[in-house]
Amino acid sequence: MEKNNSDSFVYSPVGNGPGAERAQDLERRIRIYEELEARGEMEGALGFGDYAAMLLLTVGLVATFYLWGY
To answer: In the chain, at which end, N or C, are there fewer CB atoms within 10 A of the end residue's CB?
Structure first.
């Protein structure tokens, strides 16, 4: 692997086999995610409120089952 200017690793296989196509696809996906990350907030990403709600629901569920079995 060699390092390119955008701080992402680039796989450079020898020849034009299935490894080359896979490397191109991987590089394309890396570029897309880097562009999304550079824009800022990703659409559909979970925020603080989402994680807090999941935590509260989990604690509530655990407490309910604990009290139910007590």
So the answer is: C
In a 3-state reduction of DSSP, which class is residue 33?
A: helix
Domain ranges of the chain: 1-39, 45-70
Residue 42 is given by DSSP the state: P
13: CB partners within 8 A, 6+ apart: 19, 20, 23
Return the pLDDT at 39. 86
pTM to 2 decimal places: 0.47
For residue 57, what are the contacts with CB-CB under 8 A and spacing of at least 6? none
